[in-house]
């Protein structure tokens, strides 16, 4: 059995679905079910005898001890995190609590559990920590992409909290010998992503006929990684990664934010045209930029490609079409997560921003 934390979130649920589709090994999912954790993400496997769900907090050491002692997982994969930069700007303490203190709590429980194992079991155990490329800061247009050796320069409360958690994972390996693995991925997209992130937000707003808010000039560059490719990379790292090592995971698809929004609009124009015959792109609205907005991220994934044989397989154009199609076909899911509290958040973030000229 493996233990996955945060398995009801976007990336965690995608990993669990992929895992159960490709492996007979059981999985225990520990999730607190905060706003972005949606049990409906795993409806397809909720009755699968290989799947067990426990609602709980990685910051609860008693719960962690009991779960590890009862289920005896051979690996822990930590997806549990607060992950939205905008929310970290308005409320950084929650990010420190979950991403830093929570990870430290999980590391402490994992260490005690690992130290109680037989030598054979201990040598096979792994702690895989899922992190972000945002810990490396921002790149200029002509700068080489982030490698695993790139200096940490986090610029937002979110990325600072993830950087701190990465450092604790590293410290637990070098100080105590805990067999850890860390991955730093680029921007994920795909089905079941909570509609506060760029791609699902644009799809949702477009279908509602609402403005498509683009920060600043929209020329910020991100590398886009389909969540299924990311999950395949995580399985490769878990199976083959060297304890104590880190691996960058990218989609080899650098795009400007505004170009991504136009791609979404063009896909919607094709799949579900507006009744007035206009393109969804008429809804694009430039708004005041995010505080401290990083200009460019880019991933050099040559290490994981060379050492573990992983490469992204989903081209961005194909992935974005597949993603838009999923949201069109799963409107009940979207309705279930876009509650009154979600609308209040969107209003807080965008409705009061001054439109750029």
Overview of this protein structure:
This protein has a domain of 237 residues: Rossmann fold (3-Layer(aba) Sandwich). α1 packs across α8 and α7 crosses α9. It is globular, with a radius of gyration of 20 Å. The protein is of the alpha/beta class. The C terminus is likely disordered. The longest helix is centred in the N-terminal third of the chain and has 24 residues. Strands 3-2-1-4-5-6-10 form a seven-stranded parallel β-sheet, sandwiched between helices.
Record keyword descriptors for this entry:
seven-stranded parallel sheet; disordered C terminus; about 350 residues; alpha/beta; Rossmann fold
Brief overview:
By secondary structure, this protein is of the alpha/beta class.
CATH superfamily of the domain at 2-191 and 225-252 and 297-315: NAD(P)-binding Rossmann-like Domain
CATH architecture of the domain at 2-191 and 225-252 and 297-315: 3-Layer(aba) Sandwich
Largest sheet: 7 strands, parallel
CATH topology of the domain at 2-191 and 225-252 and 297-315: Rossmann fold
Average pLDDT level? 94
Overall shape: globular
Helix content: 40-55%
- Which structural category fits the helices and strands? alpha/beta
Q: Report the uncertain regions.
A: 353-357
Topology as a string of helices (H) and strands (E) = EHEEHEHHHEHEEHEEHEEHEHHHH
Spatial strand sequence of the major β-sheet? 3-2-1-4-5-6-10
Number of helices: 13
Number of strands: 12
N-to-C terminal Cα separation, in Å?
A: 55 Å
CATH class of the domain at 2-191 and 225-252 and 297-315: Alpha Beta
> Compute the gyration radius: what is it?
20 Å
Q: Beta-sheet strand percentage? A: 15-25%
């Amino acid at each position: 059995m493996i233990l996955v934390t945060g398995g009801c979130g976007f990336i965690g649920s995608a990993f669990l679905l992929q895992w159960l589709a490709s492996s007979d090994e059981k999985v225990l999912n520990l999730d607190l079910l905060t706003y972005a954790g949606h049990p409906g993400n795993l409806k397809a496997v909720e009755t699968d005898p290989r799947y067990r769900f426990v609602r709980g907090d990685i910051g609860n050491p008693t719960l962690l001890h009991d779960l590890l002692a009862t289920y005896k997982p051979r690996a822990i994969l930590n997806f549990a995190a607060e992950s939205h930069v905008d929310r970290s700007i308005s409320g950084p303490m929650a990010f420190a609590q979950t991403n830093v203190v929570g990870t430290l709590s999980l590391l402490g429980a994992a260490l005690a559990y690992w130290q109680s194992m037989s030598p054979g079991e201990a040598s096979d155990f792994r702690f895989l920590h899922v992190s972000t490329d945002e810990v490396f800061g921002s790149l200029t247009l002509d700068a080489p992409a982030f490698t695993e050796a790139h200096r940490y320069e986090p610029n937002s409360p979110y990325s600072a909290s993830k950087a701190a958690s990465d450092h604790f994972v590293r410290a637990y390996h070098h100080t105590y010998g805990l067999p850890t693995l860390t991955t730093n991925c680029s921007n994920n997209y795909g089905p079941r992503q909570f509609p506060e992130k760029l791609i699902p937000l644009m799809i949702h707003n477009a279908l509602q006929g609402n403005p498509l808010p683009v920060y600043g000039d929209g020329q910020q560059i991100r590398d886009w990684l389909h969540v299924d490719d990311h999950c395949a990379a995580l399985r490769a790292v878990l199976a083959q990664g060297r304890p104590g090592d880190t691996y960058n995971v990218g989609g080899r698809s650098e795009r400007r934010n505004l170009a991504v929004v136009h791609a979404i609009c063009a896909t919607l124009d094709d799949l579900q045209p507006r009744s007035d015959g206009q393109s969804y792109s008429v809804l694009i609205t430039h708004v005041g930029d995010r505080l401290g907005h990083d200009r460019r991220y880019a991933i050099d994934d040559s290490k994981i490609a060379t050492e573990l044989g992983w490469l992204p397989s989903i081209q961005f154009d194909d992935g974005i079409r597949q993603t838009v199609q999923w949201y069109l076909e799963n409107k009940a899911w979207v309705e279930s997560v876009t509650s009154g509290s979600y609308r209040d958040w969107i209003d807080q973030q965008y409705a009061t921003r001054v439109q750029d000229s």
